Task: structure prediction
Amino acid sequence: MKLLSLGSGSGGNATLLQSGGTTLLIDCGFSLRELESRLAKVDLTASCIDALLLTHEHGDHIKGAATLSRRYNVPVWATTGTSRGCKWHQDSQLHHFHANGSSFRIGEVEVTPFTVPHDAAEPCQYHFLANQKRLGILTDSGCVTSHIIAQLQGLDALVLEFNHDIKMLQQGPYPPFLQRRVGGNHGHLNNHQSADLLRQLDHQRWKYLIGAHVSEKNNAEHLVRDAVQDVDRSLGARFQILEQHGPSQWFVL
Ligand SMILES: [Zn+2]
Ligand SMILES: [Zn+2]
Result:
């Protein structure tokens, strides 16, 4: 199994996951044109995408989703709440699942959605199992619940949100209502919350920890790195931060 981010942050999110002959796209927060141009940078085209999985209906996760699905005939998997939030009507390309439901299989990948506290209709995040490797993704979550901790055990790698530094958010350019939204229990994980989560997970055998959805205005890379180093120095050595403005390397598990 391998993973590549096409971009991560409030300006757009899209992540590719590949195992054997199956390629999944998790979220499509870029216009189709932008997605195509980012795919071209890693020598891929959108025609390689077998399915699109959505986490929730916020613009930074669905901007190009409908166009991608129509243009390339890509089936979309989403909770009922997310597809309603997108104002999409049922069509043959739309597959529904329950955020807290059981796993389902797309090609060679077993997909398990789990619920997260976020200000969307029926948001979820995922863990994936393929080729005996397990990858977790957690972004867009206002706090860490015991359910999330249970879902993220036994991984080989984790993509984890480090959205903001509390002080930078408080002193930053966001108006008070937006600060409350982002910092609230249905907003985004701050550096300390994510570090606390790491302390509750067995990360000894992880190959990678991948920092995601890092705010360009309310966070700084060195603060994120410090937070991870404080948890475990060896984890700091396996840590990489995703970019907003371009694709990452392939992370091979
Ligand atoms: Zn987001
Ligand atoms: Zn969101």
